[in-house]
Amino acid sequence: MDKNSMVSFAEALQAVAAIGTATSSLIQMLDSGRQSDGALREKLADMQLQVATLKTHMAELVDENLELRLEMRQSKSLPHLDRQGELYFDREGDGPFCSHCYEKGTCTRCISFSDDIRKYGNADFKCPACKTVYCLPRDDFHEGK
Question: Given phi > 0 = left and psi -120 to 50 = alpha, else beta, which region is 119?
């Protein structure tokens, strides 16, 4: 979910307040007994629309919350890696891991030799997740175990 489509908590609270106001107005209309059925139906339709809007806002907030929890869980489970040149390796020398994914907090696996880019005596790697390609001279590459 991108930042432009996320609903704020304040917007959800505004929707709740609007429903509260509409409910109070509807109760006053019923108490006065002077309103026509058409006016009551219109108020009820407005409330239904506000409830639907609130449900949408709440669903977006729940989705955002789940995404943030998942990101937190993933970032806590990432291994500690040391940067060597353009790439990351773990303390045992295993790797390489994609710099782009690791810095975003989504690194979960080693990158591998690119099948379509082996040439010129370089160690070429392609991240399977983000598709970033790394082209390193062989003497810059520290092969893992």
Answer: beta
Could you list the residue range(s) of the whole structural domain that residue 119 is in? 81-140
Final residue before a domain boundary, out of 39, 62, 77: 77
Q: What is the pLDDT of residues 38-52, one digit of tens each?
A: 777 788 888 888 888
Global pTM? 0.40
d(CA 132, CA 60): 31
Q: What is the DSSP letter of 69?
A: H
1: in domain: no
* Exposure string for 75-107, b = 16+ CB within 10 A, e = fewer: eeeeeebeeeeebbbbeeeebbbbbbbbeeeeb
Do residue 58 and residue 94 come from a single domain?
A: no
Instruction: Work out the pLDDT band at 131, boundaries 50, 70, 90.
Output: confident
